[in-house]
Amino acid sequence: MEDWSHCLDVAVQIALRAGQVVQSAVKQEKQVSSKSTPTDLVTEADHQVEELIISTLREKYPSHGFIGEESSAAGVTCELTDDPTWIIDPIDGTCNFVHSFPMVAVSIGFAVRKELELGVIYHCFDGTLYTARKGHGAFCNGVRLQVSKEKDVSKALILTEIGAKRDPATLDIFLGNMKKLLSAPTHGVRIIGSSTLALCHIASGAAEAYYQYGLHCWDIAAAAVIIREAGGYVIDTTGGPLDLMSRRVVAAGTRQIADYVVKQLQPINYGRDDLT
Amino acid sequence: MEDWSHCLDVAVQIALRAGQVVQSAVKQEKQVSSKSTPTDLVTEADHQVEELIISTLREKYPSHGFIGEESSAAGVTCELTDDPTWIIDPIDGTCNFVHSFPMVAVSIGFAVRKEKISAPQLELGVIYHCFDGTLYTARKGHGAFCNGVRLQVSKEKDVSKALILTEIGAKRDPATLDIFLGNMKKLLSAPTHGVRIIGSSTLALCHIASGAAEAYYQYGLHCWDIAAAAVIIREAGGYVIDTTGGPLDLMSRRVVAAGTRQIADYVVKQLQPINYGRDDLT
Which of A241, B15, B50, B272 has the least C-beta neighbours within 10 A? Predict the structure, then answer.
């Protein structure tokens, strides 16, 4: 069995460096554009940070493949082959970044033969570093992570994100899903604006479940390893196995909470990352 | 005109001390109960921290009054008299605290109601972010600061570029949720950049003061969630008003805050109200 520990170490170094670039960029004037919808934002910093991460990794690992948020937007295929492949979100929480709302992360995932092997997520504002390597546990600033073992839905804190679509039909489904999860009753729902950091809160046990329609493979790849290595579940919104390119996910500390969330959800179709 | 700077200094010291108690309590087993609804949580730590804050302040200022979240729950009147009054939320974001979800604050406000003036004057505010140590302070007429750096609200007037924060409130009945979610739908549809719900109204209000978000609205918070943050936001150049667009009513259990009048007015126009009663009525 291969040992990807050297890849994890490299990814950590790069995430820290990328995080510094983000920290300094957040204080400056930002050039903001939009992508698929007016609320799907991108900045110069997204491109710069992705370029930094990919070029550094490519130099060290010339045979590896790359899936990055900004490369994909530019028309490069989002296709996972059997090659070792880095899956990168240079700035997760770009809208937060634009506002200097302090929840922004660098996310670096890695898959081999289509299996997610490691993940690094770096919280750019408070310097928290989440890491995991398959079979070797998940850590936050060196401290072992453990999901919440809560099974009782009425004691669950649930996280989600809104997604880029704002048409009335989509919002009705989104808000309808929130209503069901608030009504259970659960302890509450939170929306922080960064899917990777929200998924890390599942891994740390700070919340019991996460669900979202509209995120991408580069938001899921690193966090899935971190959550699973912390003892949690990362699955499809239908309850089946995670489909990395499906643009939807449910994550939870326990199977009971995961199953409950799956049952409440009405789906929102955001297409797939592996189809144009 | 009185100088409340010594009160601000004392409040800062107490908030830091209370914050340390919260930081250590968050790592331990928590005794959790509920108050008005099953989702309105309270813990032993809420009581302990409030007792610490009030007893320390009472020793220094024996003539002052106190409005604290846990004292009020226990039946003490939530009433602003002519005495200088401390308005305290010992743990804002108790649900987050129970989960160790890292957005929890100590909030200490201070109001003085002068004779012949009907509205209480909020004079200073201290909010301490227990997880990351961020300290927000303000004194009326003397600016607002975060860890010593001057705070300035966002001057964005364009709603389509606004980030909006809110909180859910304790009620979970279907009718209330429909209004709550309907308000969210309107604000998402404008379109705005987005809506965030972080689970601590005081920290969310501080994000308005720092310019990290353009507006905040909520039904269901209390005077002890508003008192400190209102001073901080106003001293950072922002507006803190009633959800109807009129002046802030501290006991009304509702608020709109924003960096600009334009954004405040826009938010006010979208909102359908939710009635949570008043803090000064039983």
Answer: A241
Nearest to B26 by CA among B71, B73, B91: B91
Reported as a pLDDT band with limits 50, 70 and 90, residue A77 is low
CA distances from A114 to A61, A83, A87 (A): 17, 8, 11
Q: A195 — contact with chain B (CB < 8 Å)?
A: no
pLDDT in tens, B82-113: 789 999 999 999 999 999 999 999 999 999 97
Q: Alpha helices, DSSP H only, in A26-154?
A: 44-60, 69-73, 94-99
Q: How far off is chain A from B146, nearest CA to CA, in Å?
A: 14
Residues A87-98 pLDDT 10s = 999 999 999 999
Which of chain B's residues have a Cβ under 8 Å away from the Cβ of A201?
101
Q: Specify the residue for token string 């109960």.
A: B33
Dihedral of alpha carbons A150, A156, A159, A165, sign: positive
Query: Which has the closest alpha carbon to A197: A251, A142, A121, A249?
Result: A121
Q: What are the tokens at A80?
A: 């996972």
Q: Is the pLDDT of residue B166 over 70?
A: yes
Q: Which of B13, B11, B17 is nearest to B108 (CA)?
A: B11
Structure tokens at A221: 């790849």
pLDDT in tens, A114-160: 999 999 999 999 999 999 999 999 999 999 999 999 999 999 999 99
DSSP A52-64: HHHHHHHHH-TT-
Q: Residue A261 and residue A257: Cα distance in Å, rounded?
A: 6
Residue A193 sits at φ, ψ, to 5 deg, of 95, 5
At residue B117 the predicted structure's pLDDT band, cuts being 50, 70 and 90, is: low
Q: Residue A263 is encoded by which pair of tokens? A: 């049952």
**Cβ B189–A168 below 8 Å, yes or no?**
yes
Shortest Cα distance from A182 to chain B (angstroms)? 7
- Written as six digits, the tokens of A183 are 């009504």
Query: What integer is the mean pLDDT of B199-212?
Result: 98
- Residue A22: burial class (beta carbons within 10 Å; 0-12, 13-18, 19+): buried
Distance CA A23, CA A7 (A): 24
Q: How far is CA B235 from CA A71, A116, B1, B114, B150, in A?
A: 43, 49, 18, 20, 10
> Do the Cβ atoms of B38 and A154 come within 8 Å?
yes
Average pLDDT of chain B, as a whole number: 93
Q: Of the candidates B205, B54, B75, B76, which has an alpha carbon nearest to the alpha carbon of residue B144? A: B205
- Which ipTM value was assigned to this complex? 0.96
> Taking the CA of residue B103 as centre, how many other CA atoms within 13 Å lie in the half-sphere pointing to its CB?
23
